[in-house]
Amino acid sequence: MSLRLPYRLSLLAGILLTYCINTLPAQTPTAPWHNKERTLHYKPEGKDFVLHSGTKKFNRALYGTNTGFRVEAGDLPEFAMYMPGMGGNCKIGFMINGKSKWITEATHIKTIYRPGSMIYEIKDPLLNNGTLTVTVLALADADGMIIQTKSNNTPAGLSLMLAYGGATGKKFSRDGDIGADPESSFYLQPAYCKDNQYQVQKNSFRLYYGFTKPLSEDERYEIQYGKKQFDTAAKDKPKLISGLFPVQAVLRAADANRQENPATLMASDTRSKSPLITASVKASSNNIYYWVVESQDKKGITMKHRYYLPAPKLPVKNIGKSEAKYAR
Asked: How confident is the prediction for the chain on average, in pLDDT?
């Protein structure tokens, strides 16, 4: 009897629950949250999440090391590094027959989030029937990023151009959180480039930045709410970021104020007070190139160890206000 009673009670409970569900009145739709209709942004496709013709930048962070470092990627293929603190912006463009365009402005961009990476399939009339594929990942053993560019069936005479700069080491009010700090915080702003000092040798560069001491979180809070003032020009030991591009790449300085399109930037004044670095390479069909930018401030794997390159020696081509005392 003791075994039958629980069974009968559970059966009865199930019948009552089914009856209650079937007799409930239909629920009326609730009002949209914040009066905004919600739409599905990325759609699952196998193990990927896919978006077509997205509009946002820096809304998908990529992590590689067990640190606070992250690569800011997003719907559109423009990237930034947060150290924490602004570690620079990287944007890519293509040029052919006197015309040029940033890839974020291409007519069609398929964005794929595959765990640990962002992949972009880019099509545009300037590419004819070709496709440019860009993949970005955060490095696993250093604070940095690696970008792969792959051209497929692209027209002869196509060139790729990568622009990088704008490292300050300064933190944003909310560390770049989505919805808190504006998207423009991660743009390649000329003001960010003013104390950037470059040294270039062949297809590699070194960037010294952060000559002023960044404010702490408490100091930024005090300034934000007008309670206290701090010395925002206090000197600090410069930080170092290095880059290694394809061996075919031609590196030169450019003026961060002239980013209307890649061609205009490439032709700008190399003696600008707001310098950035550009690298251009011929991108014939079916070519694959790799581009690496990483911090050299922490002990461990360095650009020299990773790629077996000799450390740059002076004299090298100096850009901005580089001084010999910062060279290694």
From this structure: 83
